[in-house]
Write a structure and sequence with these properties.
Blueprint (H helix, E strand, L loop, with lengths): L4 E7 L9 H8 L5 H9 L3 E3 L2 E2 L12 E7 L15 E4 L3 E6 L16 H8 L24 E7 L2 H12 L4 E9 L6 E5 L2 E3 L7 E3 L7 E10 L2 E8 L6 H8 L15 H10 L6 E9 L6 E5 L4 H10 L2
């Protein structure tokens, strides 16, 4: 259903037993934020066996299945803007774009327009899935503003729900290229450490025992001058996952203004190049088309600024 109201069925996972309803549903329906679910619950849009549950703080029970009625979005402010897009793939159901560093994915405080959503609304003529709400139509997943690379957006609710399920099942292939400080030893491995918002700085993510499970598999592609080009394969997809996980093992991404602090010759090189973002690029994206049921995979070369950094660090 692409107009009016979409119904999403959500079953509470065993791990979410006893959680607040809004939190448990956010875990079960990754396309909807916890804040949006709070609004929907309070509005009576979340039901179980025909009965509305209006208290976001009520405790959820494992195995309970809820119906979430999601209205189509109303037009967003400054909704369509002619911002150039690099399109890797497009059909009537979805679009894969190669996002440049510096482009915010969706409108939020401080970035009310000039976002990927504004560009998509212009490019797709308003044909985007409504599940994400007013500010996030079509958005199935995100990458940070200053991370470049491949992203997928849904044009229809059917595509959105199918892609969201693959993200929830961790069956989407996502591989990033990162330039990190130092040379990882061993040269490959896995970081399995739960992530949550930092209790001391809400703009940062930290490794927290009670956080959501997060798994990153890394391997060194090439050693550089006191640095390395690393491929990171995401098993999960949490906010700032690669940045926090690599920093946690002593190999923060070069240029990362939040989790990294380069020194010496590396710092001088970053300043010389004017490289002021995390050296991270979403290089490969693979998934099963949610409607056509065929395997698709796309690759993207490192952008010019990362390529120049790589070249200058080459031993």
């Amino acid at each position: 259903m692409d107009r009016g109201v979409s119904i999403i069925e959500a079953t509470i996972a065993h791990a979410a037993d006893g959680w607040r309803l809004d939190r448990a549903l956010a875990d079960a329906v990754p396309t909807l934020s916890r804040e949006r679910l709070k609004v929907l619950i309070s509005a009576g849009a979340v039901t179980r066996r025909g009965e509305a549950h209006r208290d976001p703080a009520r405790r959820a029970a494992a195995g309970d299945t809820f119906a979430v009625a999601v209205p189509s979005p109303t037009p967003a402010h400054n909704e369509a803007q002619d911002i150039p897009l690099v399109v890797a793939y497009e059909d009537e159901h979805l679009i894969v774009v190669d996002k440049p560093a510096g482009l915010v994915v969706h409108p939020a405080a401080g970035n009310l327009d000039g976002t990927l959503v504004n560009a998509l609304l212009h490019h797709c003529g308003g044909s985007l899935s409504g599940i994400g709400g007013v500010a996030r139509p079509g958005i199935v997943h995100r990458i940070d503003k200053d991370t470049s690379g491949l992203m997928i957006a849904a044009k229809t609710d059917r595509a959105h729900e199918g892609l969201a399920k693959q993200f929830a099942d961790h069956s989407i292939e996502r591989r990033y290229k990162a330039i990190v400080g130092g040379r990882p030893r061993p040269s490959e491995g896995t970081v399995d450490a739960p992530l949550a918002r930092s209790s001391t700085n809400r703009k940062k993510v930290a490794i927290v025992a009670s956080g959501k499970r997060a798994v990153t598999h890394f391997r060194t592609l090439e050693t550089l001058a006191d640095a390395a080009l690393v491929e990171c394969r995401l098993e999960t997809g949490r906010t700032h996952q690669v940045r926090v996980h690599m920093a946690s093992i002593g190999h923060a991404l070069l240029g990362d203004p939040v989790y990294g602090r380069s020194k010496g010759a590396t710092r001088t090189l970053l300043e010389t190049l004017g490289f002021r973002r995390q050296a991270l690029h979403a290089a490969r994206l693979g998934f099963i088309h949610p409607v056509k049921h065929v395997a698709l995979a796309f690759e993207s070369d490192m952008p010019a600024d990362m390529q120049e950094l790589f070249t200058r660090l080459h031993v």
